[in-house]
């Protein structure tokens, strides 16, 4: 398996990094996170058009650039690093994967070009108020009256659910359970019977919504009753993407904390000269580098359709969740009192670490997932 | 300089093996052929039992050896360190006297560096060599000395000048281990094995000819030896894998390896035996316990991430990229894996963790993990020293304040045991 980035990939990464440093400094992150939408269409459209970010991993046949997950994960890692306020994860990762893996050829041709160009912002509504990340938690139902579908139920923790134009919804037949009877649907965000509540989120850079569906008209995505398979692949892909986003954030925190301790003087010496600080910084390096390896490996395994992909995805998610959160905790500690203030930027990443830790399943959830694979 | 290609080397090695390799040879006879021809250590100088082959082409030769089942030279540990040191810094006499017998495996060597009073701070050695008449007379104590009880020769780091600074007062000698002034005692470890020795030097003698490099250059020479230490560990592992072939020469080789390796049977256990975890969890039913499942998964996450980090470092190296931080974390990660694995083994084995030997699971293997893993975070550089090195070299953090620089060694505070 290919396990190291090519020169082109490295060039792309560092170009993107510089671009995002310029377009998304923390002042800009703070400005956008204070708005109810959390991002601005015009500004996002400019960034996206210039770099083709939403198009990267969509096949050329559907208006994209046809790159692999490893390339998309470079984008996610850099976005995690800069905390770019943009509706990327919901649209280019969750919704795009669901359409790619569940949609018919005609639907992919109809839906994906808009997402690739950025004209359509989509998201995926799957988790409900019970907060379960597997299909056992799905209670939202659909009704099929002569091929006219409607959806009823409540979805929660929907990423950018308040601003997305197109919502992909996972629902089931009333008497079905777990992986059975599941179907995916596309719903227009302006459809009648649909009500959105913006939720107050700890991580203000990432907006979450609760969406109520009361007999909302919907279009079936793919074949009725067969969504379990495509959803599984969508989750695997999204988990790998999130892991890569997280290691980007974790590395940024680690670097900032290191820079700070090198500068900070106490007791007439740099606090970076204290061995306890040096050892902590080394522990942080080890945490982040090991998690990066897992995140990179999982992306490469996905692109290679490797047998180990699913367990690698869970390992990557567990490792990066722990590493990101631990790095965030250490970072605040290394900053001392200033690290606990609103004006210091550390809390922005701390909060992203917290929300990423549980989004798409916390470490305990993924530990259990890998054990289920190995104990089969 | 001859131009070598993969093909020319392969053909040449194949032709030589075709004419010379014979599994019915006596092991010593075979090793003499390797020494005479230079095929045993083909990257060594042709003046000294080698063929001047670029290191990159050595694997081709090894492949050819492997293909016909021909045995390599006995690359056991310290012998190869001695060879590298002598090739780099030794005199003509040293090369004449020692190199051939290293290639043929006639002499056992040991490394007399660590002392009870200087572990992490190796350059703080206090074993003294003093010129009395026309000989060096050595007094002191060395420790963690592999094979000292069998060794013919020792690589000795000793202090020759107490008034010089710590590093400048050291010199390097080759010492005859079979002399009355040297007493070796096995050093029994907490896991019951005695893989190392303590060596007591009481008026032990070294002839001036056996000094390596200049007086005061001991630390420089020791650095060469230490640089080869990791490589030597790899070649030892490779040498330990004798082909399954039948024949007297293989039996001779296996017997020699068995004796050499016996003290290190616990090394896989020291690393935590992650490979046994799932099998043990299934066997004991611990796999059904949700708390233990979590701990196993955490361990595997750490173990796999560490493995993938090593792969990432290798693959960057193969691409010719400069080494990133991922290349320096292997040892720290390994000791973390070992420590975590011992904890999970304990959870899986429960009350049986109190038992040892044949009463313990897997005929004592599990017990051996539980009482061997602490060595991982100490041997070959403690975790703490590793973290100092990484923070200074990789993270560019301030160096530790030194209290021993620029002062005569005699004025530096040191241990009372020395």
Task: Offer a concise description of the structure.
The complex is a heterodimer of chains A (376) and B (418). Chain A is α+β, with helices and mostly antiparallel strands.
Explain how this protein is built.
The complex is a heterodimer of chains A (376) and B (418). By secondary structure, chain A is α+β, with helices and mostly antiparallel strands. Chain A has three domains: 7-115, Acyl-CoA dehydrogenase/oxidase, N-terminal domain (Butyryl-Coa Dehydrogenase, subunit A, domain 1, Orthogonal Bundle), CATH 1.10.540.10; 123-226, Beta Barrel (Butyryl-CoA Dehydrogenase, subunit A, domain 2); 229-374, Up-down Bundle (Butyryl-CoA Dehydrogenase, subunit A, domain 3). Helix content of chain A is 52%, strand content 16%. Chain A has eleven helices and nine strands. Chain A has helices at 7-23, 26-33, 41-51, 69-82, 88-102, 105-117, 228-263, 275-303, 309-335, 346-358, 363-374; strands at 122-125, 141-145, 148-159, 166-172, 182-188, 194-199, 208-221, 265-266, 269-270. In chain A, strands 1, 2, 3, 4, 5, 6 and 7 form a seven-stranded mixed β-sheet that branches. In chain A, helix 5 (88-102) packs antiparallel against helix 6 (105-117). Chain A is globular and about 80 Å long. Chain B has 418 residues and is an alpha+beta fold. Chain B has three domains: 6-74 and 234-262, no CATH class; 79-233, Butyryl-CoA Dehydrogenase, subunit A, domain 2 (Beta Barrel); 266-380. In chain B, 42% of the residues lie in helices and 13% in strands. In chain B, the strands form two sheets. Chain B has a four-stranded mixed β-sheet with strand order 1-4-5-8. In chain B, helix 1 packs parallel to helix 3 and helix 11 (290-318) runs antiparallel to helix 12. The longest helix of chain B has 29 residues, at 290-318. Chain B is globular, with a radius of gyration of 24 Å. The N and C termini of chain B lie far apart (50 Å). The model of chain B has no long low-confidence stretch (mean pLDDT 93). The chains are: A alpha+beta (376), B alpha+beta (418). At the A-B interface, helix 7, helix 8, helix 9 and helix 11 of A face helix 11, helix 12 and helix 14 of B.
């Amino acid at each position: 398996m290919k396990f190291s980035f090519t020169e082109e990939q490295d060039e792309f990464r560092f170009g993107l990094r510089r671009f995002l440093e310029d377009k998304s400094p923390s002042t800009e992150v703070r400005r956008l996170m204070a708005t109810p939408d959390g991002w601005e269409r015009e500004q996002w459209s400019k960034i996206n058009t210039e770099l083709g970010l939403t198009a990267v991993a969509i096949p050329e046949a559907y208006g994209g650039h046809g790159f692999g997950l490893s390339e998309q994960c470079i984008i996610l890692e850099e976005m995690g690093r800069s905390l770019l306020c943009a509706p990327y994860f919901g649209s280019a990762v969750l919704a795009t994967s669901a359409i790619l893996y569940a949609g018919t050829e005609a639907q992919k041709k109809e839906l994906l070009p808009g997402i690739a160009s950025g004209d359509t912002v989509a998201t995926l509504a799957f988790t409900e108020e019970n907060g379960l990340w597997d299909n056992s938690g799905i209670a939202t139902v659909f009704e099929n009256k002569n091929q006219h579908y409607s959806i009823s139920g409540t979805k929660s923790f929907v990423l950018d659910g308040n601003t997305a134009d197109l919502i992909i919804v996972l629902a089931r037949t009333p008497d079905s359970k777990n992986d059975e009877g599941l179907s995916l649907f596309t719903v227009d965000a302006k459809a009648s019977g649909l009500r959105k509540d913006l939720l107050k989120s700890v991580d203000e850079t990432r907006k979450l919504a609760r969406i109520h569906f009361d007999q909302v008209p919907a279009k079936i995505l793919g074949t009725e009753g067969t969504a379990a398979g495509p959803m599984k692949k969508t989750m695997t892909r999204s988990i790998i993407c999130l892991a890569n986003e997280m290691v980007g954030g974790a590395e940024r925190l680690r670097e900032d904390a290191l820079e700070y301790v090198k500068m900070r003087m106490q007791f007439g010496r740099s606090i970076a000269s204290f061995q306890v600080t040096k050892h902590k910084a080394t522990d942080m390096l080890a945490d982040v580098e090991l998690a990066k390896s897992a995140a990179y490996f999982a992306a490469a395994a996905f692109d290679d359709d490797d047998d180990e992909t699913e367990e690698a995805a869970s390992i990557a998610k567990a490792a990066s969740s722990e590493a990101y959160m631990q790095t965030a905790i250490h970072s605040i500690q290394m900053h001392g009192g200033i690290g606990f203030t609103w004006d210091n930027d550390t809390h922005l990443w701390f909060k992203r670490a917290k929300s990423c830790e549980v989004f798409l399943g916390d470490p305990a959830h993924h530990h259990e997932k890998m054990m289920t694979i190995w104990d089969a | 300089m001859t131009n070598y290609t993969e093909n020319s080397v392969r053909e040449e090695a194949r032709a030589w093996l075709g004419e010379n390799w014979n599994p019915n040879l006596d092991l010593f006879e075979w090793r003499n052929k390797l020494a005479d021809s230079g095929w045993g250590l083909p990257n060594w100088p042709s003046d000294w039992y080698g063929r001047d082959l670029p290191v990159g082409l050595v694997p081709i030769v090894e492949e050819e050896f492997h293909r016909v089942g021909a045995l390599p030279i006995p690359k056991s540990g310290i012998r190869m360190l001695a060879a590298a040191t002598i090739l780099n810094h030794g005199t003509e006499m040293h090369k004449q006297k020692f190199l051939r017998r290293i290639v043929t495996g006639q002499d056992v060597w040991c490394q007399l560096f660590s002392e009870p009073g200087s572990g992490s701070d190796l350059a703080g050695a206090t074993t003294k060599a003093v010129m009395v008449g026309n000989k060096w007379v050595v007094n002191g104590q060395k420790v963690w000395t592999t094979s000292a009880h069998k060794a013919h020769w020792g690589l000795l780091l000793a202090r020759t000048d107490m008034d010089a600074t710590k590093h400048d007062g050291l010199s390097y000698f080759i010492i005859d281990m079979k002399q009355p002034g040297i007493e070796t005692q096995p050093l029994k470890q907490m896991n019951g094995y005695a893989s190392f020795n303590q060596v007591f030097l009481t008026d032990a003698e070294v002839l001036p000819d056996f000094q390596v490099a200049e007086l005061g250059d001991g630390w420089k020479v020791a650095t060469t030896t230490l640089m080869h230490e990791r490589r030597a560990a790899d070649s030892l592992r490779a040498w330990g894998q004798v082909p399954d072939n039948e024949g007297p020469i293989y039996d001779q080789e296996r017997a020699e390896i068995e004796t050499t390796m016996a003290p290190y049977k616990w090394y896989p256990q020291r690393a935590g035996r992650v490979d046994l975890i799932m099998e043990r969890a299934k066997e004991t039913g611990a796999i059904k316990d949700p708390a233990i499942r979590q701990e196993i998964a955490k361990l595997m996450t750490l173990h796999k991430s560490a493995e993938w980090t090593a792969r990432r470092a290798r693959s960057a190296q193969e691409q010719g990229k400069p080494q990133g931080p991922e290349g320096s974390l292997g040892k720290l990660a390994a000791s973390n894996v070992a420590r975590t694995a011992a904890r999970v083994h304990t959870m899986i084995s429960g009350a049986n963790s109190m038992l040892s030997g044949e009463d313990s699971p897997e005929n004592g293997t599990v017990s051996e993990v539980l009482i061997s893993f602490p060595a991982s975070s100490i041997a070959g550089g403690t975790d703490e020293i590793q973290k100092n090195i990484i923070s200074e070299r990789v993270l560019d953090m301030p160096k530790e304040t030194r209290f021993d620089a620029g002062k005569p060694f005699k004025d530096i505070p040191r241990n009372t045991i020395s």
